[in-house]
Amino acid sequence: MLYEDLYAESISDKEAFWAKQASYLNWNIPPQNILEHNEGKYRWFADGELNMSNLCLDVNIANGRGEQDAIIYDSPVTNTIQHITYNQLLDDVSSFAAGLRNLGVKTGDTVVIYMPMIPQALVAMLACARLGAIHSVVFGGFAPHELAMRIDDARPKVIVSASYGIEFGKRIPYKILVEEALLEAKHKPDYQVYYRREEGFDTLAGANDMDYEALMKVGKASYTPVSSTHPLYILYTSGTTGRPKGIVRDTGGYATALRFSMQYFYGVKQGDVFFAASDIGWVVGHSYIVYAPLLYGCTTVLFEGKPVRTPDAGVFWRMIEQHKVNHMFTAPTAIRAIKKEDAEGNMLKDYDISSLQTLFLAGERCDSDTYFWIKDLLGIPVVDHWWQTESGWPMLGVMKGLKSPEVMPGAAGKPVCGFDIQILDDDGRIVQEGHEGNIVVKLPLPPGCLPSLWNNEIRFHKSYFERFPGYYLTGDSGYTDADGYFHIMGRIDDVINVSGHRLSTGEMEEIVSKHSAVAECAVVGIADELRGQRPLALVVLKDNVNIDETVLEDELIQLVRGKIGAVAFLKNAVVVKRLPKTRSGKILRKTICYIADGKPFSIPSTIDDPSILKEIEEVLSEKKLGLAFS
């Protein structure tokens, strides 16, 4: 089918389009009320009932997939490969669900999952879904302070964690990090459940500490049907205030959208092997490591490692050959890391990757150099696409399950079915092609997108719908070209993308400003060849303060690492005499970014003193910071 035809159908008659897609799922009560609209809020399939764990496991087994691999766990950091069939996964999930139920977890309760990339993490997610409990996975690299904020917002009955995660050969003691977070958090869960990865590594000394394996022995739990609008999970993403936003994902709309995306966007067949090299702490991990592949009857590859140094830059190629991977999804950051270590692609020569049909890239903008390097190396289609934690599934791209336009390097693609994407200027007027503006989606959003923020309807409306009534504001800027392709230019707020992590520079500024030597500061995101972006701190010292700049830089790096985690990747803090500001006192952060990235810019008419820009340029040049000066 032609992309243009199916897309037009999805926009012209949304209810009929999505009713048909929903009919392919096994509902306990099929929905009759397809789209409900009340006081500016939309809900899909509100009167339907189903269960995500049932769709992912029981239904596939009933369809004869019981002995097919559901998960291939590949952990080069522990030298482990494990094949888990649908039958085995259902047995584990129903056992752990019974264990959680034994701790008092019931439908509507929340459970925080803070685990490494191991099968037990997926079991915990699916077990929560089986009970109708709402899970909130927190990325294992986040520091105790970040975990504590999420605990206080989600208010979990139980936390599920593990002894440790592994980062480049080092054991990161998760149990200690959880305990530190609980000391800071105001909310206290009833229990902490730990999967013990290694005998003698830690002890369960607390009265509320529970052993994962012991909970697996208390019985089996059948699935609980829930309303289509029942929250499946909360996934936190950075907001401009530094306080994380709890993105809520419903069950029925999400299941419908994921199934549709596997067939029509990714072009997957049931039984295929799907490898998303991401983390379950991100939306990609939720959607395309866990729920979409299992929902669609595929084998999902669970990877505990990095694209390089576990053990080398050929690990992806080894896994594709060994597990006969058909479709792969990773971030441009991973490809840039491989290119950096193996610029000629020599490691690929050792492997047969003929099973691989398509490589999908997302999480950050893919530059043309990276795109052509990997496309020429692999000799298969490479599809860059764009979406968000809020959307839950792709918004722009090239739909491989349809007869679609060709991929255009440097562009994010064309709108995916269901997304009526437009570009508006600051006054809400549609801009002409080639002109940058605010990327928005006309309401209603298709199924699978966020229906709300966790316990914060006011922030939900203010963050996404207040500025342009009738539209969802993505927070990104971009433009369209003459062929209708969308180009994503970056954020319009102070959230930056570091290796796929959305991080608030405002939060980093708050941390940096607390240092006793700092009078004021600005943290901006500058271009990074490997990570897409990285933060740079410019600091003005208090009068009469004498401190070695190297010492200050190290202390500020450790402050940010301690509060946010290593994922922030703050490596440089530069002392400047003053910060460029408007006459009203607003720091010109975007102009600083342009200077560091070597982009042309016009001096803002509102600037207080233009000579400051030259000072900033000289400091960055002297220290060789930013791509323009390195």
Task: Give a concise summary.
By secondary structure, the chain is an alpha/beta fold.
Features:
630 residues; Rossmann fold; GMP Synthetase, Chain A, domain 3; 5-stranded parallel sheet; 18 helices; 31 strands; 24% strand; globular
Textual characterization of the structure:
The protein has 630 residues and is α/β, with parallel strands linked by helices. It folds into two domains: 383 residues, Rossmann fold (3-Layer(aba) Sandwich), CATH 3.40.50; 128 residues, GMP Synthetase, Chain A, domain 3. Helix content is 31%, strand content 24%. The protein contains 18 helices and 31 strands. The strands form ten sheets. A seven-stranded mixed beta sheet has the order 5-4-17-16-18-19-20, with helices on both faces. The protein has a five-stranded parallel beta sheet with strand order 7-6-8-11-12, sandwiched between helices. Strands 23-24-25-26 form a four-stranded antiparallel beta sheet, with no helix packed on it. β19, α13 and β20 form a beta-alpha-beta unit. α9 packs across α10 and α17 packs across α18. The longest helix is centred in the N-terminal third of the chain and has 17 residues. It starts with a helix and ends in an 8-residue tail after the last helix. The mean pLDDT is 93.
